[in-house]
Amino acid sequence: MRLDGKVALITGAASGIGRESAILFAREGARVVCVDLDAKGLDATLGLIPEGGEAIAVAADVAHAADCQRMVTAAEKHFGALHVLFNNAGIMDSRDDDAVTTEEAVFDRTFAVNVKGVFLGCKFGIPALRRSGGGSIINTASFVAVLGAATPQLAYTASKGAVLALSRELAVIHAREGIRVNALCPGPLRTELLMKFLNTEEKRQRRLRHVPMGRFGEAAEMARAALWLASDDSSFTTGSTFMVDGGITAAYVTPE
């Protein structure tokens, strides 16, 4: 098993990429700390953990320092260490649009969760990784961190660009401590988060026209990519912009 003996903390674990990662990481031998604001969703995730797997749930808002400190403390208290930190929690507000239309409150909340949440996860998670002798940090960015989105979502796009920059700098700072930091950049996914934003068939087709593979990705596919970054298989990989995007960032023209 690729994560045997490791303790992994996953934020945004009540649904989507976080839930699929929690299930897969547990199947691969990790003891998993599942974190989310959605307590019911966390309970559902725990119910999907494979038999014999170990997982606990911590209800927390990653935009608050006390909550992030508490989730890391729970990992060390319950499982004795932390080896993998997957800062995956994120939001995409349906009111997110262009600079003229997007409300300041939408912009601020998006940054509080998507960027500050990653910062706070690292602020409290890195000392725990040091105590365990090193480990892997995975921060969920997005393909829009390197491309503009065809459907305006300025706050989200800017926030994911910030996650990418933050990840690169952390990778450089902590490389010689045995702490690897990589940014997972999913392409458009068939998740509740994106489907709520692309809430018409016209919006969905507009996004798909730019994906060479011609389909939305699945959360389980992102979980498998995260597993590689979490495991020792990626031991010489840090500071990477890990694109798992169906080819969207490689496309020059829209495929027919």
Structural account:
The protein is α/β, with parallel strands linked by helices and 256 residues long. It has a single domain, classed as Rossmann fold (3-Layer(aba) Sandwich), CATH 3.40.50.720. 44% of the residues lie in helices and 15% in strands. The protein has helices at 16-27, 39-48, 65-79, 104-131, 154-174, 192-197, 201-208, 219-230, and strands spanning 7-11, 31-36, 54-59, 84-87, 135-140, 179-186, 241-244. The chain has a 7-stranded parallel sheet with strand order 3-2-1-4-5-6-7, sandwiched between helices. The N and C termini lie far apart (41 Å). The mean pLDDT is 94.
* CATH topology annotation: Rossmann fold
The succession of helices and strands, N to C, reads EHEHEHEHEHEHHHE
Global Rg: 17 Å
Question: Uncertain runs with pLDDT below 50, 5 residues or more?
Answer: none
- The CATH superfamily appears as NAD(P)-binding Rossmann-like Domain
Number of strands: 7
Under the CATH scheme, the architecture is 3-Layer(aba) Sandwich
How many domains is the backbone divided into? 1
How many helical stretches? Answer: 8
Helical content band = 40-55%
Q: Indicate the CATH class.
A: Alpha Beta
Largest sheet: spatial strand order = 3-2-1-4-5-6-7
Taking the sheet with the most strands, its summary is: 7 strands, parallel
The gross shape turns out to be: globular
Q: Report mean pLDDT, rounded to a whole number.
A: 94
Structural class: alpha/beta
Q: How much strand?
A: 15-25%
Ends apart, CA distance between termini? 41 Å
